Amino acid sequence: MDAVILQVLNGLDKGSAYALIALGLTLIFGTLGVVNFAHGALFMIGAFCAVTLQRILTFSYSVIDETQKDFLGNPLKVETPYVVSWFGEATGNSIIDWSVPLAILFSIPVMIAVGFTMERGLIKHFYKRPHADQILVTFGLAIVLQEIVKAYYGANPIPTPAPDALTGSFDFGVLIGFGENAIIYPIWRLVYFFFALAIIFMVFAFLRFTTFGMVVRAGMADRETVGLLGINIDRRFTIMFAVAACVAGVAGVMYTPINSPNYHMGMDFLVLSFVVVVVGGMGSLPGAVLAGFLLGVLEAFASMNEIKAIVPGIDQIIIYLVAIAILLTRPRGLMGRRGVMEE
Amino acid sequence: MIGLNRKDALLFITVTVLVILAPFILNPFPEGTAMAQMFNAGYPDLMQRFVIFGILVIGFNILFGLTGYLSFGHAAFLGIGSYSAVWMFKLLSYNVVPAIILAIVVSGIASLIIGYIALRRTGIYFSILTLALAQMCFNLAYSVLGNPQKGINLTNGETGLQVYTSDPQYLMGENAPELPHLFGLVMRDSLELEIGSWAFTLNAGYYLCGVIMLATFYLSIRIFRSPFGLMLRAVKSNQQRLSYTGLNTRPYTLCAFVVSGMYAGLAGGLLSSMDPLAGAERMHWTASGEIVIMAILGGAGTLIGPILGSGFIEYFKNILSKINDNLLHQWLSFLPDGLEDALVWVLHFFVGKGWHLTLGILFMLVVIFLPGGLVELGKRTGGLFDRFRNAAEGSGKERNQSPRKAAE
Amino acid sequence: MSHTKLTRRGVLKTSAGFGAALATPTVFTGASWASESGYMNAPGDSSCTLGFNVPQTGPYADEGADELRAYELAVEHLNGGGDGGMLSTFSSQTLDGTGILGRKVEYVTGDTQTKGDAARASAKSMIEKDGAIMITGGSSSSVAVAVQGLCQEAGVIFMAGLTHSNDTTGKDRKANGFRHFFNAYMSGAALAPVLANAYGSGRKAYHLTADYNWGWTQEESIKASTEAVGWETVSAVRTPLAATDFSSYIAPVLNSGADVLVLNHYGGNMVNSLTNAVQFGLRDKEVNGKNFEIVVPLYSRLMARGAGENVKGILGSTNWHWSLSDDGSKTFVRSFGTKYGFPPSQAAHTVYCQTLLYADAVNRAGTFNPCGVVEALEGFEFDGLGNGPTLYRADDHQCFKDVLVVRGKENPTSEFDVLEVVEVTPVEQVIYPPDHPMFAGGDLGTCNPGV
Question: What value of ipTM does the predicted structure carry?
Answer without folding.
Answer: 0.89
